[in-house]
Specification:
Elements (H helix, E strand, L loop, with lengths): L1 H10 L5 H18 L4 H12 L1 E3 L19 E3 L5 E5 L6 E3 L12 E3 L4 E4 L3 H4 L6 E3 L4 E4 L15 E3 L4 E4 L14 E3 L4 E5 L4 H4 L5 E3 L4 E4 L13 E3 L4 E2 L15 E3 L6 E2 L3 H4 L7 E3 L4 E4 L13 E3 L4 E4 L13 E3 L4 E5 L13 E3 L4 E4 L13 E3 L4 E4 L13 E3 L4 E2 L2 H8 L7 E3 L23 E3 L21 E3 L21 E3 L6 E3 L8 H4 L33 E3 L4 E5 L12 E3 L4 E3 L14 E3 L6 E3 L12 E3 L4 E5 L19 E3 L20 H22 L1 H9 L2
Parallel strand pairs: 3-5, 4-6, 5-7, 6-8, 7-9, 8-10, 9-11, 10-12, 11-13, 12-14, 13-15, 14-16, 15-17, 17-19, 18-20, 19-21, 20-22, 21-23, 22-24, 23-25, 24-26, 25-27, 26-28, 27-29, 28-30, 29-31, 31-32, 32-33, 33-34, 34-36, 35-37, 36-38, 37-39, 38-40, 40-42, 41-43, 43-44
Antiparallel strand pairs: 1-4, 2-3
The structure holds 2-acetamido-2-deoxy-beta-D-glucopyranose (12 copies).
Length: 718
């Protein structure tokens, strides 16, 4: 209003001076009435301020001598009533003063994402003015307040109390008085008890009900079916039981049904599902649903996301799925679906961005129609029974960034690589456990895998050598060629892989010495990490609009695994350059010579396995500098002398030293005579305790790390 009048004045420059003066006066008086709050409102706000132990700098603008309508986060109506208190993400600490309930014109209160604690004042929920109340992401606790019966009108429409520490039943029965409620978000608290049956008799206008991440028990009430306005229903991550009641499918306005990991079972009935013609998201992942996907799913013309992953569903995919032409994401992983995929005509699904069918029993060939989904970014068909060769059509998928075909019965690796190498956006390619007994192609692959960061061709087993074309993958970060029958030596060009920080070529038949070029791998040398690493690689990339990001980024450790080969010679002294290594495994080779003392420089090591070689000499005492070392094994060598003592070395089992008859130590059968005794630790007990605690903490941390390959790879890619 103000700028408008100003411009009006500019346009009327020819006005006589006194009339301009009058307009100015008018304007000023108007301005003063538009923005002056009452002493009482100011007092209420100052009372709120005084309840804060951290005010995030509010005091700078919330001054007694100024008009509270000009304070940070405050908006007033033209008549000077405070209508809006917007203080999200201000690092506020302390409690929420009930005096905010005295602001009789307050329509919106947003205190989201602060560190406010103690309870939610009853005065706010039962305010007779507040329409939108968002106190999400704080540390508020206790049970929710009962509603005062004294105020007849409760205009509250939007209530977000999510991500707090509330407990008890939800909602308290007295809340039935909030008749106008449209959106109720109570996710991520510790509410218990059954889901109330009266939601939509109490709140007939309810459109959004979000109760996920709580401790609700019992069944899904069929009365939810009477919620004729309900569009969003999210109740995942609870401890429910039973199935989705038939009645629920009467709520035909539903656009989102989301019950992941909530303990449900049962089947999807043909006679139910087709009623929900507005449905855009159906997420029933990680439950115990069984049965088939009903044909009537084809009636869900607006369906964009279908998540039925990790259930016990089976049968063929219904051809009617072809009718859900708006599908963006399909996740059916970890079920028992079977049959040929070719029943579904994927060329009708042009919006498909992500298709995840991992761990089912699909067989036949990969249907050609998938290759017309040109927006596909992620395709995971791993652990099924697909056979045949990849076809050229795959190169139509120009956006494809993630492809896992691991663990099928595909053939012709040369052909597969020729087709995939020209995929400009392909960042993750996992095609191992296919191509049984084929030979690793050595000739240059035409096309260069421009963007590939993660290449896994393990468990085939493949014959041949580590091929030279790998040296030309400019962005490679993770290379896994383990469990094949590769022969020849570790190529000297390995150091050209300047971004590789995870190299697993274990369980092959590689011969020769460990080349010093391995010790020149720059990512393993540099302590400063990951500047180049784009976390997107590790994600099954998903369309940003998808509510469901079903693969989390995860960090691989820096790893060099050359175990179970036929490597000979000595461990190069230069190994000490790989300062950022977390895991070094040289076990089950034929290595000779001493353990180079430079290994003691690998201060980030968490795993060191040198077992089952022919190493001689002493275990360097300085290894006890490796404070993060949580797994250590030198068994079955020919080592001699005392075992390092102190710190985490006291925590390693004696089996880590077995098979070295000349080793001695307090925990071994062979005790050291005094001449061999290791130097006494100069650390005080306190320091030692600290270091032991540290080591234990890291072993706990590392418990995940040791199993990385198995768990992470199988979980995410297998
Ligand atoms: C403001 O609110 C508090 C607590 O709700 C109440 O005790 C007090 O009387 C109110 N003050 C005024 C002036 O209404
Ligand atoms: C509260 O503010 C946050 C941050 O600006 C915003 O994301 C949220 O939508 C607001 N809440 C409501 C109910 O508008
Ligand atoms: C809280 O939930 C409401 C209703 O669902 C929503 O409008 C609001 O944006 C949410 N607030 C935040 C911070 O996400
Ligand atoms: C509920 O609030 C949380 C913030 O804690 C927000 O992330 C979520 O999107 C909201 N849910 C709905 C359905 O608005
Ligand atoms: C739940 O709330 C906690 C604490 O506010 C937060 O750290 C966490 O990310 C939230 N979880 C979800 C799933 O929203
Ligand atoms: C879930 O509820 C069942 C009983 O219905 C109970 O036995 C189980 O311990 C609960 N689980 C969790 C994680 O609360
Ligand atoms: C759902 O609709 C059917 C038929 O329209 C009706 O018989 C049934 O009572 C309804 N159930 C609920 C929970 O509204
Ligand atoms: C594919 O799977 C279906 C269903 O399990 C089975 O009946 C059929 O024989 C299988 N076909 C082949 C070629 O394995
Ligand atoms: C494998 O693929 C290559 C290249 O496409 C082709 O030349 C060769 O004939 C194929 N081999 C078999 C056995 O099909
Ligand atoms: C290790 O080398 C010796 C001698 O060269 C050979 O006899 C032995 O078979 C090799 N062992 C392995 C496991 O390669
Ligand atoms: C360990 O690293 C330091 C500093 O980089 C270097 O001076 C020293 O020679 C190395 N020690 C061994 C045994 O390689
Ligand atoms: C290494 O040890 C194996 C048995 O452990 C032995 O057969 C072989 O001769 C040894 N090789 C060398 C080179 O010492």
């Amino acid at each position: 209003m103000y700028p408008l009048q100003l411009s009006d004045m500019r346009c009327n420059r020819k006005l006589p001076i006194n009339s301009l003066g009058i307009s100015l006066l008018l304007l000023m008086s108007l301005a003063s009435t538009t923005s002056s709050c009452t002493q009482q409102e100011k007092a209420s706000l100052l009372e709120f301020l005084s309840g804060l132990s951290q005010d995030g700098g509010l005091t700078a603008s919330w001054r007694k001598d100024t008009d509270c309508c000009s304070w940070e986060g405050i908006t007033c109506s033209t008549d000077g009533m405070v209508t809006d208190v917007s203080l999200a993400s201000k690092s506020l600490q302390g409690y929420i003063s009930p005096t905010l309930g005295n602001l009789t014109g307050l329509l919106q209160l947003n205190l989201s994402n602060n560190l406010l604690s103690s309870g939610l004042p009853q005065e706010l929920v039962s305010s007779d003015s507040i329409i939108t109340l968002d106190i999400s992401c704080n540390r508020l606790d206790g049970e929710l307040p009962e509603m005062s019966s004294s105020t007849p009108v409760h205009p509250l429409k939007v209530l977000n109390i999510s991500s707090n520490l509330f407990t008890g039943q939800f909602p308290p029965s007295t809340w039935e008085a909030i008749e106008d409620l449209i959106a109720l978000n109570a996710s991520n608290n510790s509410f218990t008890g059954q889901l109330p049956t009266h939601f939509c008799t109490s709140f007939p206008s309810l459109a959004v009900l979000e109760l996920s991440y709580n401790r609700f028990t019992g069944s899904v009430p069929s009365e939810l079916g009477s919620c004729s306005m309900l569009r969003v229903l999210k109740v995942g991550h609870n401890n429910l039981s039973g199935t989705l009641p038939d009645g629920l499918f009467n709520a035909t306005s539903l656009e989102i049904i989301s019950f992941p990991r909530s303990g449900l079972q049962g089947t999807l009935e043909d006679t139910n599902i087709f009623k929900l013609t507005n449905l855009a998201t159906l997420d029933l992942g990680e439950n115990n649903f069984s049965g088939k996907i009903p044909e009537s799913i084809g009636h869900l013309k607006r369906l964009e996301e279908l998540h039925l992953n990790s259930n016990n569903m089976y049968g063929e995919l219904p051809s009617a799925l072809t009718n859900c032409i708006n599908l963006i994401a399909i996740n059916l992983n970890c079920n028992n679906f079977s049959g040929q995929l070719s029943k579904v005509n994927f060329s009708n699904l042009p919006n498909l961005v992500s298709l995840d069918l991992m761990r089912n029993n699909f067989n036949g060939t990969i249907p050609e129609s998938i290759y017309s989904c040109i927006n596909l970014i992620a395709l995971r068909l791993s652990s099924n029974k697909f056979h045949g060769q990849l076809t050229k059509g795959l190169s139509n998928l120009k956006s494809l960034a993630f492809l896992s075909l691991y663990n099928n019965s595909l053939t012709n690796l040369t052909n597969a690589l020729q087709i995939l190498a020209s995929s400009k956006n392909l960042a993750t390619l996992l095609i191992g456990r296919n191509f049984k007994h084929e030979t690793m192609p050595e000739d240059d692959i035409s096309g260069s895998f421009d963007n590939i960061r993660f290449l896994g061709i393990s468990d085939c087993p493949l014959f041949g050598k580590i091929p030279f074309w790998i040296s030309k993958l400019p962005n490679l970060e993770i290379l896994i060629l383990s469990n094949n029958q590769l022969t020849g030596s570790i190529p000297a060009w390995i150091k050209a892989l300047s971004y590789v920080f995870y190299l697993n070529i274990s369980n092959n038949s590689l011969t020769g010495e460990i080349p010093t070029s391995v010790t020149d791998m720059s990512m393993l040398q540099s302590v400063k990490t990951d500047a180049n690493l784009n976390p997107r690689v590790f994600v099954l990339p998903v369309y940003p609009a998808l509510s469901h990001q079903y693969l989390q980024p995860f960090a691989f450790p820096k790893l060099l695994d050359l175990s179970n080969n036929k490597l000979t010679g000595e461990i190069p002294l230069e190994i000490g350059q790989l300062k950022s290594l977390h895991s070094l495994n040289l076990s089950f080779n034929n290595l000779t010579g001493h353990i180079p003392i430079s290994i003691c420089n690998l201060t980030n090591l968490q795993v060191l396995d040198l077992s089952n070689n022919n190493l001689t000499g002493a275990i360097p005492g300085a290894l006890d500098n490796l404070h993060f070392l949580a797994a250590f094994n030198v068994s079955d060598n020919d080592l001699e002398g005392p075992v390092p003592s102190g710190d985490q070395f006291n925590t390693f089992e004696t089996s880590c030293f077995d098979g070295n008859t000349k080793l001695c130590g307090p925990m071994l059968i062979h005790k050291c005579c005094s001449a061999e005794a290791p130097p006494a630790s100069i650390l005080s007990t306190e320091q030692t305790d600290y270091k032991v605690a540290f080591a234990i903490a890291f072993s706990a941390f590392f418990g995940v790390g040791v199993l990385y390959d198995q768990i992470v790879l199988s979980r995410y890619f297998g």
